[in-house]
Amino acid sequence: MEIPKEILSIIDRINKSEDNWKAIYMGVWGYYFQLKAKFENTSEWNRPHKLGLPAFRRGYHEYTPNQLCSILTSKDIEITFEHLIILFSLFEELLNKSSEILFGTELDTSQWRNMKKFFEEESTLDILSEESMKELNLAKQTRNCYVHNGGKIDQIWLDSCNKIEEKSMELIGKNLEDGFQNLFHRIEEWHDLIIEATNKIKEKIESK
């Protein structure tokens, strides 16, 4: 069948999301290196400058180069989690819309039990492996902890993680990044998992 434009738009945004995510990194770190090269070890490093912001009313915001460099280099975690939030929200929207076509009923996949149900139907059972489902659940619980629990690990996150690798109860209440050997690499892996699932769902709809 012909895929509805609304679903094609969601798929397109998911497939382009890595480019958008990493472009923000490049912009932040590129500007940091530019400021550092121009101002560090000069008398201007700690002096306020009216730095350009063309889209804003005044057209600038005042920082010292030292201050702005410090802010820019503190944004990695925030940028990465915001990518996960956007990516997972798009993926949930895709599952919701696709379920109506594939199963005749729209599922609310903001709830894990419904997301799990999506991939347990006969027509979608081959999209993700059992291990991939565990990773998808951990990705979802990571997103939820960041949004609803102030970026702190809770029991639900720990239970999801322990299905993949054993973690200590001492992690509860700590920052999410403390639960990963390399948060950035893990989110890249989740991104790849979601891209793969997205394109398989697209094929399922096309063959409907």
Description:
With 208 residues, the protein is mostly helical. The protein has one domain. It has helices at 5-39, 65-72, 76-103, 112-118, 130-148, 155-162, 183-206; strands spanning 49-52, 60-63. A two-stranded antiparallel ribbon has the order 1-2. A hairpin with a 7-residue loop joins strand 1 (49-52) and strand 2 (60-63). The longest helix has 35 residues, at 5-39. The radius of gyration is 21 Å and the shape is globular.
Question: What's the helix and strand layout?
Answer:
Elements: H1 5-39, E1 49-52, E2 60-63, H2 65-72, H3 76-103, H4 112-118, H5 130-148, H6 155-162, H7 183-206
Helix pairs in contact: 1-2, 1-3, 1-7, 3-5, 3-7, 5-6, 5-7
Short description:
The protein is mainly α and 208 residues long.
Helical fraction: 55-70%
Q: What global shape is seen?
A: globular
How many alpha or pi helices? 7
Helix and strand pattern? HEEHHHHHH
Report the end-to-end length measured between terminal Cα atoms: 6 Å
Strand order of the largest sheet: 1-2
Number of strands: 2
How many domains, as an integer?
Answer: 1
Oligomer: single chain
Low-confidence stretches: none
Computed structural class: mainly alpha
Beta percentage is: under 5%
Q: Largest sheet at a glance?
A: 2 strands, antiparallel
Rg calc: 21 Å
Mean pLDDT: 95
Keywords:
208 residues, mainly alpha, two-stranded antiparallel sheet, 7 helices, 4% strand
